[in-house]
Amino acid sequence: MELSEGQQKELVQQARSGQPAYVRVKALALLNRADGRTVQEVARIFRVSRPSVYLWERRYQQRGIAGLRVQPGRGRKARADLAEVTEYVRQSPRRFGVNRNRWTLASLAAVVPSLRGFSPFGVQLVLARAGFGYKRGQPHLHSPDPQYAAKKGRWSRR
Known about the structure:
Elements lengths: L4 H13 L3 H14 L4 H8 L3 H14 L18 H8 L15 H7 L8 H10 L18 H8 L3
């Protein structure tokens, strides 16, 4: 593999501080190829397949450093529809036949169609991805007595 001086410098810089980390590995592999190592040697050193090394070379020659990054749209698609989850969370659970004032993770999993079959922790992860924080409700003691605060002060630490 032949590299120009500019490409060599670019790969050295990426090998030292490229982000994400897999870009550093690919840059190092390409530098090893440029130093005269065979594809088989590079694949063995970096514990990847030979087709991966060929692919990295081809993508680097075509698109430069951008070719070493993982392209968007890769991986398993999310099952949960964030727009649908947001629509349900912003409404009262009573609207959907849940006899509660606030949503629970289990009730969301039971009501929201795209969350059916999710564990409570899975629902919590979806909520975090949608920008919602989950907080468990705290018990609150209140009395209609007008002197409740004064009476409570005698035995409460607050």
